[in-house]
Amino acid sequence: MICQFAYGQEEKPSTKETVVVEAAEKDAKPKVERDFKPSAVNVGMEGIGLGRTGISSGFTQLEAQADIDFDRYFFVVDLGHERNLIANDVFNYSNNGNYLRMGVQVNMMPYNPNRNFFFFGFRYARSHFSDQIHYTEEFEKWGQKDITLANNGVSARWYEMTMGLKVKVFERLYFGYTLRYKVGKKMSGFDELMPRNIPGFGRASKSSNAGFNYYFLYHIPFRDKPVPKKPKRVFRERSNSNPSNQSLPSNSFNNRF
Rounded to whole angstroms, how far apart are CA atoms 48 and 45? Predict the structure, then answer.
C-alpha cells in the first residue's frame, strides 16, 4: 500500500481601497507666507478730547497716535497732553501734564481688501503731571486764611487691555475707535495733596478705569504690500491599503491504496 500526501496553500490577490477623507484641521490650513517687513504707518488724532477742548474752557486734551505694521501685528504709540481746571465757590483746582502709551495690537481681519481691521491689544502707560489746589479756610484765632497745596513731578503708571475697529472711509483716511480697560495703577511723587485726576488715566481715586477714544487716521505706505489672500480649506486624498486576505491553509490528501 502506497500513500501520498500533498500539502498546498491557496493565495488570493490583494485588494486596495482608495478613500477620500477630509484632512484634519491642523492639516487643512495651508502654510501662509508671513511678511514681517513694515510697509506703512498710520498717524492721526483723537477726536473726543479734541471736541471737548473746543467747547470747554476748563479742559484741554490733545492726543496723537501712530502705529506701524509687522505682518498682522502693530506697534502703537499714543502721546497726549491734558489740562483740567475746576473753579467754584469752595476751591480752585488745576491739573496739567502729559502721558504716553505704547504696546501692540493684533489684527483679527488680515484679509480685508480695504485694510480695515478689528484688533485686540495691550498697552503700557505712563503719566507725568503737576497739580494745585487753592481754597480759603476759616480759623477762630486768625480768621480767614488762604491755603495752597501743590504737587510737582507726580508720576503714574498703569496697564491697558484694548480692543477696537478701524475702517477706511476715503482713499487713505480711516476712522476708528478704541475701548480701554485700565488696571494696575501706581502713583508716586505727591505730598499732602492727593491728585484728583491722572492725565490719560482719569480719576486718581480709582484703582481701575474704562475709556473710549475715537480716532482719525491717515495711512502712509512706503512700500507696496498686497493684501494676503485668505487660505482655503483643502482636502487631502489618502490611500489605505488593506492587507491581502489570506485563506486558511487547505490540505489535499491523495491516498493511493
Answer: 9
CA quadruple 90, 92, 93, 96: dihedral, nearest 10: 170
Structural domain contains residue 137: yes
Whole-model pTM? 0.78
Cα 227 → chain centroid:
20
User: What's the number of domains the chain is made of?
Assistant: 1
The CATH number for 133's domain is 2.40.160
76 and 121 Cβ atoms separated by less than 8 Å: yes
Q: How far apart are CA 254 and CA 239, in angstroms?
A: 44
Q: Rounded distance, CA 222 to CA 206, Å? A: 43
Q: What is the pLDDT of residues 132-164, one digit of tens each?
A: 999 988 777 777 788 999 999 999 999 999 999
CA separation for the pair 8, 33 (Å, rounded): 60
